TrEMBL record:
<feature type="domain" description="Phosphoribosyl-AMP cyclohydrolase">
    <location>
        <begin position="31"/>
        <end position="104"/>
    </location>
</feature>
<keyword id="KW-0378">Hydrolase</keyword>
<keyword id="KW-0963">Cytoplasm</keyword>
<dbReference type="Pfam" id="PF01502">
    <property type="entry name" value="PRA-CH"/>
</dbReference>
<dbReference type="InterPro" id="IPR038019">
    <property type="entry name" value="PRib_AMP_CycHydrolase_sf"/>
</dbReference>
<dbReference type="GO" id="GO:0004636">
    <property type="term" value="F:phosphoribosyl-ATP diphosphatase activity"/>
</dbReference>
<dbReference type="GO" id="GO:0005737">
    <property type="term" value="C:cytoplasm"/>
</dbReference>
<keyword id="KW-0368">Histidine biosynthesis</keyword>
<feature type="region of interest" description="Phosphoribosyl-ATP pyrophosphohydrolase">
    <location>
        <begin position="126"/>
        <end position="227"/>
    </location>
</feature>
<dbReference type="InterPro" id="IPR021130">
    <property type="entry name" value="PRib-ATP_PPHydrolase-like"/>
</dbReference>
<dbReference type="GO" id="GO:0004635">
    <property type="term" value="F:phosphoribosyl-AMP cyclohydrolase activity"/>
</dbReference>
<keyword id="KW-0511">Multifunctional enzyme</keyword>
<keyword id="KW-0028">Amino-acid biosynthesis</keyword>
<feature type="region of interest" description="Phosphoribosyl-AMP cyclohydrolase">
    <location>
        <begin position="1"/>
        <end position="125"/>
    </location>
</feature>
<dbReference type="InterPro" id="IPR023019">
    <property type="entry name" value="His_synth_HisIE"/>
</dbReference>
<dbReference type="GO" id="GO:0005524">
    <property type="term" value="F:ATP binding"/>
</dbReference>
<comment type="pathway">
    <text>Amino-acid biosynthesis; L-histidine biosynthesis; L-histidine from 5-phospho-alpha-D-ribose 1-diphosphate: step 2/9.</text>
</comment>
């Protein structure tokens, strides 16, 4: 694919371009994502859709984890040169929920989505929980526990984190391994709710741990003090 398109874009003005992915055969709109210059370059060079994840703050190739790749057939730039349209051949499904399109929540009717979500085993449990938390931001607090926490606000969320941390400590003191696992899971879940409320993807925690890996404790603390 031609890379001449890159020369027409002002990346300083728009460092992240909104990108609409549309299935080339049916015309169905599949998803909205973002590309930085590196993602678009890789997309044009490889013919496979690459995006930039704002939540993970990292480049990602669509389908790299799930196998649900997007093969690029056509690329269009809009009249203002700040939005892209990709016409793609979608392998599998486009949405992390296991639906064919990310646009399944119809808001002008009370009808439930007609297409059932399919389990995508390749996604990690923390990634699944993070996306569920994002979805629950728009759910009914009367029918969803996560939605009720988010609706009540940060004091309630943080109270639960502290409460679960205390429960874990009591289980630890009692040397009860089963309870330690149970309470640690509760603590991690409510910490993920707190992170999700602030749109912080758990992969950023993994990246921070990777950054620290191999550093001595004193060296790591000194590196924090330098910032």
């Amino acid at each position: 694919m031609s890379l001449e398109l890159l020369n027409t874009l002002n990346w300083e003005k728009t460092p992240l371009l909104p990108v609409i992915a549309q299935e080339v055969g049916s015309g169905n709109v599949l998803m909205l994502a973002y590309m930085n210059e590196e993602a678009l370059t890789l997309t044009l060079k490889t013919g496979l859709a690459h995006y930039y994840s704002r939540s993970r703050q990292a480049l990602w190739k669509k389908g790299e984890t799930s196998g649900h790749f997007q093969y690029i057939k056509e690329v269009y730039l809009d009249c203002d040169s700040d939005t892209l349209l990709l016409k793609v051949e979608q392998i599998g499904v486009a949405c992390h929920t296991g639906r064919s399109s990310c646009f399944f929540n119809r808001i002008d009717t009370q009808e439930a989505p007609k297409e059932e979500a399919k389990e995508i085993a390749a996604y990690s449990i923390t990634d699944k929980i993070y996306h569920i938390i994002q979805e629950r931001k728009h759910a009914n607090p009367k029918t969803s526990y996560v939605a009720s926490l988010l609706h009540k606000g940060e004091n309630t969320i943080l109270k639960k984190v502290v409460e679960e941390a205390g429960e874990f400590c009591f289980a630890y003191k009692d040397a009860n391994k089963d309870e330690m696992v149970y309470e640690a899971a509760d603590l991690m879940f409510h910490t993920l709710v707190a992170l999700g409320a602030k749109d912080i993807h758990p992969s950023l925690i993994s990246k921070e741990l990777e950054r620290r890996f191999g550093l001595g404790g004193i060296e790591e603390k000194n590196s924090r003090n330098e910032h």
